Structures are given as structure tokens and as C-alpha cells.
Amino acid sequence: MHGHSDFYVVVGLGVTGLSCARYLHSHGIPFAVTDSRIDPPNLSTFQNAFPDVQVVTGKLDKSLLNRATKIVLSPGVARQEPAIAEQAKRGAAILGDVELFAQAVNVPVIAITGTNAKSTVTTLVGEMAKAAGYAVQVGGNLGVPALDLLVKNPNANLFVLELSSFQLETTYSLKPLIATVLNITPDHMDRYHDLAEYQQVKHRVYQHCQIAICNKDDALTDTSIPQKTYFTLQSPKENEFGLMSKEGETYLAYGNQCLLSIKSLPLMGKHYYANALASLAIGHRFGLSFELMLKVLQTFKGLPHRCQFIRERNGVRWYNDSKGTNVGATQAAIEGLGSGIPGKLILIAGGLGKNADFSPLAPVVEKYTRHVVLIGQAANDLAAVIDKHVPVSFAATMEDAVQQASEAAQQNDSVLLSPACASYDMFKNFEHRGDVFIGIVERL
Ligand code: UMA
């Protein structure tokens, strides 16, 4: 793993880069850092913590990279980046924070990926394991980098990690006890050639896993690993998790066993039932009891920025789904919310489009929305696929968008911020976008 003559260069000084620096430092491994941003987010934190470590910002420093035997790449930087590709060609090893984590961890890991829902399922599985008494740590793409979890919690006996395709690109030796790809729809098409390449990267999570959990309704998630459990929104076969109808009521079910009426779940919508079923499948294969897991499902109120209810005003309900950063996520949010409300939806969407094809939004927008307010760089691209179906308007700021949405809404409607885009053109990140939206809506 770490040879005596190794010199590491950490690329990127976001939360990941900082976690890698802490880890390498705590192991006495020599390293330096470079970031193409002039003023990366953690520069002063880093310089205070590691005054003696060399850091070059404003470019990916070639002379520094040339000295590296190992390059620890942050998820936000692609391997195809010329400065990195050149180093790989020279023979430098390219690895990510999750690879460093994989080399060091010696307790079970549950690894969760997919285009959408992975934060919710990761959180649910973590809550279930905690309820069963595990000293479980939950993180990864969800927020706290895997290495920080490891360094700060030496007594953890289980890690539940949300992994992004970016992280999986540079992960080679992770051996999850259980791994899942929850679903695959197009995302990050500015980084991958096509859906097949994106799928291939996602499937790296299965590489050395013992047990796979697959979505029977999404063939792109399937794998040939023999130890496999399916979840589905159809009625489940033996050893599968699914939805079952009995006497007019719908239940989460395992094989022919009804587990819990969906009426007992605080959250609704098909995409959420799929999350609950995936979590049950993972927990069950891990050995958790149904009783404990169902208790968690009955109290879980959802994550912030994920179809999060903000308030009701003049008969209109406002929801924040800022985490809807791709087409599939926004599609699911519109369907989930739209199918359950008496009125129609006013959608606020747009941002950084990541080369996405927005056309799959047209049918759900037509079915469930009354009006769409568009923001950000992708506003025109979005308008092109939906303005034939519903009235659209354009807003330069979030204040403006909220104002327009408020004017378009009628009694019993709901306003949904679900951008189908990244936030970086107008905000620091999706949390910032959601918080700004909530602030404006609360002051209405
Ligand atoms: N950047 C540069 N130059 C550099 C390094 C980074 O311009 O030298 C840019 C990147 O292009 C990116 C931004 O800086 O736009 C942040 O990149 P980073 O790799 O430093 O990111 P971190 O702050 O370390 O956060 C990362 C994840 N971010 C990304 O993958 C872009 C976070 O996921 C994750 O929570 C965190 O590690 C802990 O694991 C965020 C995300 O957007 C939520 N993930 C994508 C998604 O979910 O779709 C994959």
C-alpha cells in the first residue's frame, strides 16, 4: 500500500482533499496539495493545520504532480483532466479518498450508489443499524468524507457509505459486505461519454462485494453476482422485497409476508416506497430484524432538500427539493408530489445543466404542473422541451422565481423547487440553493 518512497499529491482542497490530508498526515506519509481554484474552500483551515505542507493553488501544479508516485484525486476532478491524464500515462497511481479508506478499513462496509435516492437509503440503513445497537458511521458523498469517519471513529463496527460515480472511478479495492446500485438514469453527461460508461462506473461498487441488492424494475442495476436480493414496486416473489395489495390496502412486503402498510409511512410516493424496500433488503441481508427496521421507517421524516415541506400559505404548500440535481430526480419528485395533491404543481427548475437531455421531463410536467418558472444557465434548454406543454416564465434570481411562482399558484396547488440541474451557476451548492429558497418562502 504505502511504500517508503511514496510521495502523495492530493488534488483538490474541498472537504475530500482536507480529509485525505488529515489521513496522510496522521500516518506520517509525505504529501503536498494542489487545487486549480485560486482560493479553494479549505485553504486557510489547511494552512493552519499543516503549516509545513506545500500547497499550490490556481492551477494543478505540474512540477508538483511530476514528483508524485500516488495522486489522490478529489471527486470533482475528472481523470480525463489533461494534467491528470498526463500523470497517469507517466505511471503515477491515481486513487481517490474511498480507495485510501478501503485500504485501511477492517470492519464491514455497506456501499450504496445509484443516480437518485442514495442519500435517503444510506441514512435509513444507518438509522436501522443504529437502532440495532451498531456503532455505525454514515457518510461518503452524503457529506462527511469516508476518511474523516474512519480517523475520528476508531471504534466504529460498521460503515454505511453513499458513493458517487466520481468516487467509484478511483476506487479499486473496496470489498463491501453489501453493495447496491439503486437506479440508473442519465446524470453527469458532461463527464461521461454515454449512459453505458456511467453505468459501468456505477457497477464498480459490485466488484468485490459479497451480497448485491438490485432494483428488479431497473435492468441497468442488475449484476451476475450470485448472492443477490431484489427489491421491486411489483408484487415480490420469494426472497424479494416489494409492494403487495391485500383487502384494498398496499403493504411493504417480503415474499408473501406483509410487513407494513404504506399508510404507516410518514412519507409517500412510489420513489419513496422503493427507498424503504431497498433499505429493508439491505438491512435484512445484514441481519437486522424486521421489527426494528419497521420502527425506523415509521418515524423517518426524510432528508432536508429532498421534497422537504416548508410551509403552507394561502392554501398553497411549498416544497424544497434542491437536491433534485438531475432529470431523474426531478421526474420522481414531480410524480411523487403531483400524484398526491388535490391541485397542480408550480415548478421552479433550472441551473447548471451538465449537458443533460431534459426531454424526459415533458410528460410529467404536462401531466402535473400548471406553470414552470425557469432559472439559471439551463433555462432556455428547459424551456425548449416544456413550453409546448405548459406556460413558462423566466426569473433572474430566486426571489424573482418565488414571486412568480406565488402569483401563478392557485388554492390547493403546491410550489416545488426541483431544479433538475446543479446549482453552481448561482449558488455555492445545492444546500445553499435550498436554504436561500427556504429563507425567501418563510418571509413571504
Ligand atoms: N474543483 C476544481 N479544482 C480542483 C478541485 C475541485 O475546480 O482542483 C471543483 C470541482 O470541479 C467541483 C468543486 O471544486 O465543482 C468541488 O470539488 P471537490 O472534489 O473538492 O468536492 P468536495 O468538496 O471534496 O466534495 C465531494 C463531493 N463533491 C463532488 O463530487 C463534486 C460531495 O458531493 C461529497 O459530499 C464530498 O466530497 C464528501 O464525500 C456533492 C456532489 O455534488 C454533494 N456530489 C455529486 C452528486 O451527488 O451528484 C457527485
Question: What's the SSE blueprint?
Answer:
Layout (H helix, E strand, L loop, with lengths): L7 E4 L3 H12 L4 E5 L7 H7 L5 E3 L4 H6 L2 E4 L8 H9 L2 E3 L1 H8 L4 E5 L4 H14 L4 E5 L5 H7 L5 E5 L2 H5 L8 E4 L13 H8 L8 E5 L12 E4 L9 E6 L2 E6 L2 E5 L8 H17 L3 H10 L8 E6 L2 E5 L6 H12 L6 E5 L11 H8 E6 L4 H8 L5 E3 L3 H11 L5 E4 L12 H14 L1
Parallel strand pairs: 1-2, 1-4, 2-3, 4-5, 6-8, 6-9, 7-8, 9-10, 10-11, 16-20, 17-18, 17-20, 18-19
Antiparallel strand pairs: 12-13, 13-14, 15-16
Helix pairs in contact: 1-7, 6-10, 6-11, 10-11, 12-13
Bound molecules: uridine-5'-diphosphate-N-acetylmuramoyl-L-alanine.
| CATH superfamily descriptor of the largest domain | Mur-like, catalytic domain
- Mean pLDDT, to the nearest integer, reads 97
Main sheet: strand order: 7-8-6-9-10-11
Overall 3D shape: globular
The largest β sheet comes out as:
6 strands, parallel
What's the number of extended β-strand segments? Answer: 20
> What CATH architecture of the largest domain would you give?
3-Layer(aba) Sandwich
In whole angstroms, the N-to-C terminal distance is 56 Å
Cα-based radius of gyration, to the nearest Å: 22 Å
Number of helices: 16
Task: Find the CATH topology of the largest domain.
Answer: UDP-N-acetylmuramoyl-L-alanine:D-glutamate ligase
Low-confidence stretches: none
Beta-strand level of the residues, as a percent range? 15-25%
Binned, the helix content reads 25-40%
Structural class: alpha/beta
Q: List the ligand species.
A: uridine-5'-diphosphate-N-acetylmuramoyl-L-alanine
CATH domain class name of the largest domain: Alpha Beta
Domain tally: 3
